[in-house]
């Protein structure tokens, strides 16, 4: 089975796979070499999720409205 490169995953894809990785590691019935590979994949997935969350936070900050309904963000965010 070919794994999708982490940098090409959406947040949802990365979270789903990360949950599966954590589940496998928590069961503790995986051989050491596979556990290490799973841990490394999990670390990469965690980093991807953090990056996607940061991007989402920047977008929200850019479109947050003040009391009068006007956008409060003054710096355009890439991809918007």
Fold and architecture overview:
The chain contains two helices and no strands. It has helices spanning 11-27, 32-63. Helix 1 (11-27) packs antiparallel against helix 2. The protein is mainly alpha-helical.
Strand pairing plus helix content: what structural class?
Answer: mainly alpha
What are the secondary-structure elements, in order, as H or E? HH
Approximate shape: elongated
Low-confidence stretches: none
| Main beta sheet strand tally, sense and closure | none
Summed over residues and divided by their number, the pLDDT gives a mean of 87
Strand content: under 5%
Classify the helix fraction into a percent range: 55-70%
Distance between the termini: 35 Å
Q: Radius of gyration, rounded?
A: 18 Å
What's the helix count?
2
DSSP summary, beta strand count: 0
Give me a quick take on this structure.
By secondary structure, the chain is mainly alpha-helical. 61% of the residues lie in helices and 0% in strands.
Give the SSE layout:
Blueprint: H1 11-27, H2 32-63
Helix pairs in contact: 1-2
Give short descriptive properties of this protein:
80 residues; single chain; mainly alpha; 61% helix
């Amino acid at each position: 089975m070919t794994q999708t490169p982490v940098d090409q995953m959406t947040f949802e894809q990365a979270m789903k796979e990360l949950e599966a990785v954590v589940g496998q590691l928590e069961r503790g019935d995986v051989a050491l070499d596979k556990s290490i590979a799973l841990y490394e994949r999990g670390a990469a997935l965690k980093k991807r999720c953090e990056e996607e969350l940061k991007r989402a936070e920047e977008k929200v900050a850019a479109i947050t409205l003040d009391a009068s309904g006007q956008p409060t963000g003054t710096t355009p965010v890439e991809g918007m």
